[in-house]
Specification:
The complex is a heterodimer.
Chain A: H1 3-24, H2 32-38, H3 41-55, H4 68-83, H5 86-104
Helix pairs in contact in A: 4-5
Chain B: H1 6-55, H2 59-69, H3 72-83, H4 88-99, H5 101-113, H6 118-126, H7 130-139, H8 153-181, H9 191-202, H10 209-224, H11 232-261
Helix pairs in contact in B: 1-3, 1-7, 1-8, 2-8, 3-4, 7-8, 10-11
Classes of the chains: A mainly alpha, B mainly alpha.
Chain lengths: 105, 262
């Protein structure tokens, strides 16, 4: 991976999105369906990253109890629902993962 | 020149001083408003700096990403993609999709910045993060402590974005150092740290039927398309999720309309 192009590309894309409306200062508007769809983007992308990462941590689908990634992820979902706190979810989720890994693996 | 007597010159000077004070007050308030969000972001900056090298990113690129790209959640997602050796095009496409929400922020702020000079708008656009947008929304609320005169509100913006920028970059640097001190974090299964971070970010979204459908469909699709080359499945699944969410919104509207007619 060429890191120069990675950084340059990410900069151009990120800045471009933030800048285009400011640059043309109100001369562009978006259709409503597009504005509505934008709010679904971050959760959809994140979900599409998380699910394969924990269901197939080593490249093959693994729905068994020996898949600590999947187990810890399910428990983390519950932790997040209960605590409603991002930092607590990360802390306790990680703790559960390391414990399970130690117990099962 | 002759028109201005000594008194009006004094008035002009006083109002200039007054403007200076107002700008300072806005800037200070912007920094202050950013503090709670900064406290929340510091652990993530550190986590980013710690995880980046284990995902295969060099030290300079890690720092450059925080300093030049300056987009928290996109930076994490890109790390996850680099770790699975996704190609550059997919990474950039994902960056685009993930950052599209900033279009909404910018659209909302356009009426507030359109009178400012082009160079200043350029700078403000660079700092348009989730956090600064949240700060600005507070500032423009009627009855804000700084008053409903927004003549110098862009100084509030500058205060918020600079304090956030400095913290995010410093936290990244601290993370890089920490990751260097604690050896071999990959063997701990730290790649799960990324998954659990994303879980914590995504679950709070689960508050409407539309959002649930979007995430559920994205989850199923991501497994169905998991074996597509180049991580293309990610983009396809995200689009399917968005389409599912939009459809639910659409059907809900239709049934509400029918209910009204009946």
């Amino acid at each position: 991976m060429n890191e120069f192009w990675l950084i340059l590309g990410m900069f151009v894309i990120t800045f471009g999105i933030r800048f285009v409306m400011f640059a043309f200062a109100g001369k562009i508007t978006f259709p409503i369906w597009m504005q509505q769809s934008l709010k679904f983007v971050p959760p959809a992308v994140l979900t599409a990253i998380i699910v394969p990462a924990v269901v197939m941590p080593f490249g093959e689908m693994d729905f068994s109890f020996s898949n600590v990634y999947l187990l810890a992820a399910i428990i983390s979902v519950i932790i997040s629902l209960v605590t409603k706190s991002l930092l607590k979810t990360i802390f306790f989720g990680m703790l559960v993962f390391l414990l399970l890994k130690f117990l099962i693996a | 020149m002759v028109k201005y007597g000594p008194y009006s010159i004094r008035l002009l000077k006083e109002s200039a001083i007054n403007h200076q004070q107002l700008k300072k007050a806005e800037m200070k308030a912007g920094c202050k408003a950013a503090i709670p969000l900064i406290i929340g972001a510091i652990p993530f900056g550190i986590l980013f700096g710690t995880l980046a090298p284990t995902s295969g990113l060099s030290v300079w690129a890690t720092m450059a990403m925080s300093l030049i790209v300056f987009a928290g959640s996109a930076q994490f997602i890109v790390l996850a993609l680099i770790a699975v050796q996704a190609p550059l095009e997919i990474i950039l496409l994902t960056t685009f999709v993930v950052n599209l929400r900033h279009l909404l922020y910018a659209t909302a702020l356009v009426p507030r910045v359109s009178h400012l000079p082009f160079a200043l708008r350029t700078l403000l656009a660079f700092g348009l993060t989730d956090e600064t947008f949240a700060n600005m929304s507070q500032r423009y609320q009627p009855g804000s402590p700084l008053g409903d005169d927004h003549q110098f509100a862009h100084f509030f913006y500058l205060g918020s974005m600079f304090s956030f920028y400095i913290t995010w970059s410093s936290a990244t640097a601290i993370g890089l150092v920490l990751g260097n001190i604690i050896p071999d974090m990959t063997s701990w299964g730290l790649e799960f740290a990324m998954s659990v971070t994303f879980i914590g970010m995504v679950i709070p979204y689960l508050n409407t039927k539309a959002m649930f459908s979007a995430m559920f469909c994205a989850a199923i699709a991501s497994l169905y398309f998991a074996y597509l080359p180049n991580k293309l499945g990610l983009i396809i699944s995200a689009l399917i999720g968005v389409a599912a969410g939009l459809s639910v919104v659409h059907f809900q509207k239709m049934s509400i309309n029918q209910g009204e007619q009946a």
